[in-house]
Amino acid sequence: MKKTSLFLVSTLILCILLGGMVWGADKPVTLKFYHWIGTDAQAAVAEIDAKFMKENPDIRVEFESAPTDQYQNLIKTKLASGDAPDVFGVHPGTEVRDYSKAGYLMDLSKEPYVKNVMDGALRVTRGENRKVYSIPWDMNVISVIYNRKIFTKLGLKVPTNWNQFLAACEKIKRAKIYPMALGNKDLWVTQLIPYAMAPSMIYAKNPEFDADMYNGKVKFNGAEWKAVIARYLELNKKGYFHPGVLGTTYDQTVQLVATEKAAMVVNGNWILAPIRQANKDLDLGMFPMPAVNAGEDPTISSAVGTTTAISAKTPYPEQAKKFMEFWMRPDNMTLYLKDKKAFSTLKGVTVDFDPAAKELAPYLTKGKTYPFLDQSWPNGVQDVFLKGYQELFAGQSVEKVLSDVDKEWADRTKK
User: Fold this and answer.
1) Does the residue 87 lie in any domain?
2) If you write DSSP's letter for every residue of 15-52 in order, what string do you get?
3) How many separate domains does the chain show?
4) What number of other Cβ atoms are within 10 A of residue 312's Cβ?
């Protein structure tokens, strides 16, 4: 009797354990997806995640979002405490390099979709070992936004080099219209024209300029950056901005373009929406800042706005990789980008989110792009540059401003 009872109990325990194992096998895996994009593309994120779960019923996705200004500190805390989500957003450039060096990010270099990403977009997704640790999902650009009606009325064609650009500005000025709006009261705006020019003037000739900065081979207070600043100040000296740029805000530049008092503004594609809200009837276009000589192609200042990584310590690596691959399908990226109102990072994928932006798309498909400059710089350098741009327009010398930036770079990169 005792042996029989013991057998029955043992059999019952075994059945419970086996049943639990079978139940556990049927239980869906839950991926934690954490990102800031829920604040501006929530509908698309929800739709894409739902499609993924429908196609993969054995995987559940729990999405959580935080505002951009809070996200960076929140994800740092999660990573440091060992509470990393399976899939999460990483800011491009310095943050990708720092997190990959710390061992937080999975190497995605051999994933099949990587070959479909534009080379320019991949630059800010690599670690120090050049491996790809995050995947770029969208791009913004800094370019010239212009009023097509004014250009047509004055018989102007889109300029393709610096001399043509100056000639167009001069003709617009003579027509009693401000050639360009500039809101240098807002610090972040001060950098946009140099950001639009430097890719063509510096990085097209030496893509490793920033690497040379880190290695002490070049300085900001050198011929390259002096030439960029000279052209920036040339536009001001020739009167191609409106009076009082240091007292003008970004919002006021929107109004100057919307009311057709200014024919152009150098800014990101994000300015299109507020301009159109102020004047829905404007016929706007976009072209690359032509800071090149005749016969040269401009290099566009483009920034990956969103990159997404997989935790190196996720307990579900295969499911997380399947989720990322799903997101990178052209149909899903198109859905996301329409909601996000941004340019594609995938070769062959263009999204018509604005007629003006569509005009710039052919330039982007050529791949002649360079990331927003600060994405490769040490923290703090950009802040000194922004203050310096304001000082330049107040009469400070170019040498003093660039020397201050060099000093900040040196301080930030001391070993």
Assistant:
1) yes
2) HHHHHHHHHHHHSPEEEEEEESGGGTSHHHHHHHHHHH
3) 2
4) 16
DSSP states along 333-369: HHHHHHHHT-B--BTT----S-HHHHHHHHHHHTT-E
Q: Give tens-digit pLDDT for 77-118.
A: 999 999 999 999 999 988 999 999 999 999 999 999 999 998
Distance CA 123, CA 132 (A): 9
Structural domain including 294 reads: 142-302+371-412
Phi, psi of 286, deg, nearest 5:
-135, 140
Q: How far apart are CA 408 and CA 382, in angstroms?
A: 9
Q: How many residues does the chain have?
A: 415
Residue 4 inside a domain? The answer is no
pTM assigned to the model: 0.75
- Give yes or no: residues 262 and 401 share one domain: yes
**Is 182 in the same domain as 283?**
yes
* Three-class secondary structure of residue 111 per DSSP: coil
Q: What is the CA radius of gyration of the chain?
A: 26
Domain-embedded: residue 388: yes
| Residue 347 within a domain | yes
23 has pLDDT over 70: no
Residue 306's DSSP bridge partners are: 138
Q: Which two tokens stand for residue 265?
A: 């503004």
Q: Which tokens belong to 228? A: 């960029």
Reference 172, options 143, 137, 146; nearest CA is 146
Q: What is the pLDDT of residues 332-343, one digit of tens each?
A: 999 999 888 888
In angstroms, rounded to a whole number, what is the distance separating the alpha carbons of residues 100 and 277? 41
- Return the exposure string of 168-187: e unless at least 16 CB atoms fall within 10 Å of the residue's CB, then b: bbebbbeeebbbbbbbbbee
Q: Are residues 64 and 147 in the same domain?
A: no
Q: What percent of the chain has pLDDT over 70?
A: 93
- C-alpha to C-alpha distance for 182 and 241, rounded to whole angstroms: 7
